[in-house]
Amino acid sequence: MSGKHLIESPTKADGAALWRIARDSQKLDLNTPYAYLLWCRDFAESSVVAKVDGEAVGFVIAYRRPSEPAAALVWQVAVDASQRGKGLAGQLLDALFTRLSADGVRYLETTITPDNEASIRLFSSFAKRWNAALESRRLFESADFPDGGGGHEPEDLYRIGPLLRN
């Protein structure tokens, strides 16, 4: 894989690759393969996938809550091990916001566990590149999870914006 990154909307055909990239990260909460197929079908307009030579190598899955159409919540960001360290995750976030801003999105949100320094850096860097405020607050405590916390760390909500299109 040596070609240039092509960033586009995912299709149903990308679902298996997105699941594989998330699984291989060994860091993300892994959803079922079925969920990735549905994300690629139902949230393609609010998500992006990076491909090299036709093969998916990274993605951002996001969605817009009907109760707040000016915000998009980033569910997952993942980059294949072969592409890490090249700034691809930041490029994917930039491409996603550029697309969504044309449809009125002014805020990006995500949840991050307190110890996930890489994700905190990624979203902090995004906010800085776009000259936008970044706020965080606790969204879910460990005990909020259905298994009583079962080892799941708390999740903090990061909200970036208002964002203005460059």
Would you write up a description of this structure?
The chain is an alpha+beta fold and 166 residues long. It has helices at 15-25, 33-42, 88-101, 117-129; strands at 6-8, 48-52, 55-63, 71-79, 107-112, 134-140, 155-160. It has a 7-stranded mixed beta sheet with strand order 1-2-3-4-5-7-6. Helix 3 (88-101) links the parallel strand 4 and strand 5. Helix 1 (15-25) packs across helix 2 and helix 3 packs across helix 4 (117-129).
Q: What is the residue-mean pLDDT, rounded to a whole number?
A: 92
Strand content: 25-35%
Give the count of helical stretches.
Answer: 4
**Net shape:** globular
Q: What is the number of beta strands? A: 7
Rg measurement, Å: 15 Å
Distance between the termini: 31 Å
Structural class: alpha+beta
- Runs with pLDDT <50, length 5+? none
Strand order of the largest sheet: 1-2-3-4-5-7-6
Order of helices and strands: EHHEEEHEHEE
The largest sheet is: 7 strands, mixed
Estimate the helix proportion, in percent.
25-40%
In short:
This protein has 166 residues and is α+β, with helices and mostly antiparallel strands. 29% of the residues lie in helices and 27% in strands.
